[in-house]
């Protein structure tokens, strides 16, 4: 189930395009020859700098993962999309024994899991109508390994990773590649808020890694040092179980 995808001359949509990993993905896609990138954000004023810099190669579009109507609207207005990158997400620190863990989990499920489902449901038909393409989901090393301080975040990303696996099987039927990205600490506002700035690595590792993984038709991407170490330990299981063909008969 290998579907290589080249970003050159393609149209992309990136959620959370205004900063961090999302902004880096936009810049990297354009540098590698993407024809146009939709900047999908909650606040259109946050992408003014990108619009000024890239002019007619980028198009701001309103999208909020917690508001289904904005996702449906974005899909209706971006009918030329070939690749969707669902990068936007939320991290709310809470350990399992804290009372705050339940509302924290609820919020992260709403954004990180339900948001993914809404994106896939709205954009899969668009990708199919355009002959297939690619759907990239930003998961995390936390989807494979939980930590007490980030337990609710890890749970939401584990759920998102599970859904990403199912999407890989379903979207292959319409010639759409699915890529599950599992970064470790990356130099973003989210990493700073989580207290991981000292070990965080450049956002460019994720963006460049996505280009390379899509070109090769890979399903998993472990872009940074911590992620690569975990990915190496996980590789055998991933190849034999997660990426193995599924007999549905």
From TrEMBL:
The keyword Translocase does not apply. Keywords: Oxidoreductase. It holds the Pfam family adh_short. One of its GO terms (molecular function) is oxidoreductase activity. Gene3D superfamilies: NAD(P)-binding Rossmann-like Domain (3.40.50.720). It comes from the Bacteria. InterPro entries: NAD(P)-bd_dom_sf, Sc_DH/Rdtase_CS, SDR_fam. Belongs to the short-chain dehydrogenases/reductases (SDR) family. This is NAD-binding domain 4, putative. It comes from Methylophaga thiooxydans DMS010.
